[in-house]
Amino acid sequence: MTQFWFRPKRYGYGATPTTWQGWAVTFAFAAAMAASIVAVERLAGPTNTAAWLGWAAFMLVALLWFVQFSRRRTEGEWRWRWGAEDRKG
Q1: pTM for the whole structure
Q2: pLDDT digits (tens, 9 = 90+) for 1-55
Q3: Disulfide check for 6: which of 2, 15, 38, 66 has CB 3.0–4.6 Å away?
Q4: How many whole angstroms separate alpha carbon 56 and alpha carbon 50?
Q5: What does the alpha-carbon distance between residue 19 and residue 36 come to, in Å, rounded to a whole number?
Q6: 85: how many CB neighbours lie within 10 A of its CB?
Q7: Helix (H, G, I), strand (E, B), or coil: what is residue 71?
Q8: What are the residue ranges spanned by the domains of the chain?
């Protein structure tokens, strides 16, 4: 049985963490992204275009992985929501 770590957002598109595991993986992804910026800045410098293009390609792959991972761990489907599902009447 799969435990869901995210739930669909009430407004907009996507999901939000609902368990400590969902918050942990979201925080770890954000921290890794921030750390990678600092690492490339210190190792390659601000003017090394090739290093920054490599970083951007790596981050694109990491972001696509994170989106797919969170979609698999979301209870329900990802679609645009206007909040109307929660209104009574």
Answers
A1: 0.78
A2: 478 999 999 888 989 999 999 999 999 999 999 999 999 988 888 888 898 999 9
A3: 15
A4: 10
A5: 26
A6: 8
A7: helix
A8: 19-72
